[in-house]
């Protein structure tokens, strides 16, 4: 399976969605709920991570709603492979598990959102639409875990005893190849507050497309692999 080179979906087309969950009742219920929305089309249902990968390559959905604990290939492994092979496909994790390590593994694998299955229907729908717009979402409980972990790591970096010979700057955690400009710092602070690109554009008086370019550049400078990681780093700097 190679890396995706397909064209972007047509403007105004329904959001194409794949549901992956090994529990039939949950999978079918989610599919029915999501497919009932006029702007969403459920194009497939997968019973495990392996089938999710196969259907994603065959159907090219915009979003995959992914459970984590599934047979054959786990949701985390499937998310990692999807992020590498089909980078235009956004993964929304929807699971009953909020175990710290699972959360961090899913974020590192490339998940753009992480919700628990007790989330309200409106929250699931808004999250699916948000990731399709290029945004990232974490449920409040999960966001707290990620931010606490990031702050603990940051404190470890800043509180570590100095070594006999300091490491070169390029090997320091999150060392910047270039410093952020004042405008980039302002946009990063707004990201830490949970603002969308549109909200940021209104506050810094830029076009939404220009803000998107700024966000991409900030991701490069902070070595963030996706917007979720960038939001975590932003909160660590401005929280």
Account of the 3D structure:
Helix content is 51%, strand content 12%. The protein is of the alpha/beta class and 239 residues long. Strand 1 (15-20), helix 1 (24-35) and strand 2 form a beta-alpha-beta unit. The longest helix has 20 residues, at 140-159. The chain starts with 14 loop residues before the first strand and ends with a helix. The model is unreliable at 5-9 and 161-176 (pLDDT under 50).
Quaternary structure of the protein = single chain
The strand order across the widest sheet is 2-1-3-4-5-6
The H/E string reads EHEHEHEHEHEHHHHH
Give the class from helix and strand content and strand pairing.
alpha/beta
Uncertain spans:
5-9, 161-176
List the helices and strands and how they pair.
Blueprint: E1 15-20, H1 24-35, E2 40-46, H2 49-59, E3 63-66, H3 75-85, E4 90-95, H4 100-109, E5 113-116, H5 121-132, E6 137-138, H6 140-159, H7 182-192, H8 197-204, H9 208-222, H10 227-238
Parallel strand pairs: 1-2, 1-3, 3-4, 4-5, 5-6
Short description:
The protein is α/β, with parallel strands linked by helices. It has ten helices and six strands. The longest helix is centred in the middle third of the chain and has 20 residues, at 140-159.
């Amino acid at each position: 399976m190679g890396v995706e080179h397909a064209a972007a979906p047509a403007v105004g087309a329904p959001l194409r969605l794949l549901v992956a969950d090994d529990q039939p009742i949950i999978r079918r219920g989610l599919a029915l709920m999501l497919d009932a929305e006029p702007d969403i089309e459920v194009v497939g249902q997968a019973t495990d991570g392996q089938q999710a990968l196969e259907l994603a390559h065959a159907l090219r959905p915009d979003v995959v709603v992914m459970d984590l604990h599934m047979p054959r290939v786990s949701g985390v492994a499937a998310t990692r492979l999807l992020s590498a092979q089909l980078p235009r496909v956004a993964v929304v994790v929807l699971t009953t598990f909020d175990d710290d390590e699972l959360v961090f593994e899913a974020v590192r694998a490339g998940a753009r959102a992480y919700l628990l299955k007790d989330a309200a229907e409106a929250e699931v729908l808004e999250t699916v639409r948000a990731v399709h717009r290029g945004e990232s979402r974490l449920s409040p409980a999960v966001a707290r875990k990620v931010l606490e972990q990031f702050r603990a790591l940051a404190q470890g970096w800043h509180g570590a005893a100095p070594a006999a010979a300091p490491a070169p700057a390029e090997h320091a955690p999150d060392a910047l190849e270039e410093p952020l400009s004042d405008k980039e710092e302002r946009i990063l602070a707004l990201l830490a507050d949970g603002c969308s690109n549109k909200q940021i554009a209104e506050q810094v008086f830029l076009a939404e497309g220009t803000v998107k370019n700024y966000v991409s550049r900030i991701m490069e400078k902070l070595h963030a692999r996706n917007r979720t990681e960038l939001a975590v780093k932003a909160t660590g700097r401005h929280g």
